[in-house]
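Revision sheet: structure tokens.
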Amino acid sequence: MKKLIILSALVACTSGLKAEESAFQASLTPDIAIYSKTTEISGISLNIWGENPQHGVALGFVNGSTGDSSGFSWAFFYNYADTYTGVEWSLVNYGKTSFTGWQAGMVNYSEGKFNGLQMGIVNYAENLNGVQIGFANIAMNNGWFNEFPDKLATGFPFFNWSF
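Predicted:
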């Protein structure tokens, strides 16, 4: 009975997958992995250092999400993404083009558009549409930071927002 349940779960996970899509990825580095780094992962990724477009759960030391990705990404050290929707938890989280969701870590950095919540010691967003909670919160599109770095806002050491 246990084998039937496991087989059914595997069939359910892999049915409907495209030719360049997989339900499971394991990688030591982006080039030493079960699937190439261009294969979309719609399921679970277990990584020492992984880098794939993904829609699912990524667990590892360093998780990279390329292209348009979504899901839950937990890394011991570092999460990075091009365009991501979902949750990133790590010591350091980085969003390049856009991020929608929740980043939680020691340092959260969004180079592009950020929509959602950043929680950490240092939070930085070029274009924030949301809330930052931490010891140092910087949103470059917030009026308090118009003269940054010459003048620093004194009002948002623990809480910052921009809508």
